[in-house]
Amino acid sequence: MEPYSIILADDHKMFRLGIRKILEELDDVTVIGEVSDGLELLRMLKEKTPHMVILDISMPNIRGIEATREIKTVDPHIKILILTMHKAREYLYHSISAGAEGYLLKEDADTELYMAIEKIRGGRIFISPILADDLADNFVQMCRGHAVHNSEILTAREREIIKLVAEGKTNKEIGSVLCISTRTVENHRAHIMKKLHLRNTSELVKYAISKHYVSISG
Fold first, then answer.
1. Which pTM value belongs to this model?
2. 106, 49: one domain
3. CA 78 – CA 75 distance, rounded (Å)
4. Residue 169 and residue 125 in one domain
5. What stretch of H or E contains 63?
6. Which of 9, 99, 209, 217 has the fewest CB atoms within 10 Å, i.e. is most exposed?
7. For residue 181, how many C-alpha atoms fall within 13 Å in the half-sphere facing its CB?
């Protein structure tokens, strides 16, 4: 099988040498080029077509994220692994948005580089563990917050009441249908209006229709 070819792009020569040493220990991976800035990288890619480019964000002339966009425009099949010291979430977002398949922190390179390459080779996205955990925590909080928000909008009883209001029933008629007092219906309606920030019955009916609690005929 053809070795998996990689080009390294980083303006720190000693760091590039360290990464190359790690890669040379892998049987099926070969480094076919090294450059120190983004412009050199784009020039090299006119002569060589690697399976993957491993590049830093902070490079002279053309930075890593801009270089990523250029590479993906020229050849979207080339995989890109961003290898950087930047932990800020915006760099991760910009890198993935530009087309990178991986985002690896330099502090994780000695233990995670092989895993990053293998995941990307397999068609998956790789993100450094500490950043991936942070994203997972945020995702869980977002989902839980969304669920709580949705569950607190209207209770089942309030949905029943808003449906009956939209159907044109009076508070007394609603109380009769639901077997509750007229005062209780009035309290429910007041809570509904407050929750939904509505000003009058007309807006309440419009909301009920928009949520398909009632249908329009005619």
1. 0.65
2. yes
3. 6
4. no
5. none
6. 217
7. 3
Q: What amino acid occupies position 216?
A: I
CA 36 remoteness from chain centre:
30
The answer to whether residue 140 is domain-embedded is no
Q: Residues 122-146: pLDDT tens digits? A: 999 999 988 888 777 766 666 665 5
Mark whether 38 and 74 lie in a shared domain: yes
How far is Cα 203 from Cα 196, in angstroms, rounded to an integer? 10
Q: How far apart are CA 74 and CA 101, in angstroms?
A: 16
Does residue 136 fall inside a structural domain?
A: no
Q: What is Dmax (Cα atoms) for the chain? A: 82
Using DSSP, state whether 136 is helix, strand or coil.
Answer: helix
Q: Are residues 85 and 156 in the same domain?
A: no
Same domain for 68 and 175, yes or no, is: no
Q: What is the span of the domain harbouring residue 85?
A: 4-131
Q: Which residues pair with 53 in a beta bridge?
A: 7, 80
- The two tokens of residue 131 are 């950043």
